[in-house]
Design brief:
Elements lengths: L3 E7 L3 H12 L6 E7 L6 H7 L6 E4 L6 H10 L3
């Protein structure tokens, strides 16, 4: 099977985030690398991400994550 990388970006999207995460996790495809990247949300998003953290390849919640070198490094880390 081909490895598929899925990245869910989020910032203060707690109303939609759990549905998005579950949508990816419930696809049933066996070879998925799943990352959730949050921009330091303050609306409970991090609690939702933590709930699913054991099923995620990687997650982070950092202010300014989507800018500059850190974003490029994480994007380059995707294997699929």
């Amino acid at each position: 099977m081909t490895l598929v990388s899925v990245v869910t970006p989020s910032f203060n999207q707690s109303a939609y985030l759990e549905q998005a995460i579950r949508s990816v996790l419930e696809q049933g495809y066996p070879d998925v690398e799943y990352m959730v990247m949050d921009g330091a949300s303050t609306d409970g998003s991090v609690d939702i991400i933590r709930k699913y953290s054991s099923r995620l390849t990687y997650w982070a919640s950092e202010k300014g994550f989507w800018t500059g070198r850190r974003h490029q490094q994480r994007h380059a880390a995707c294997q699929g």
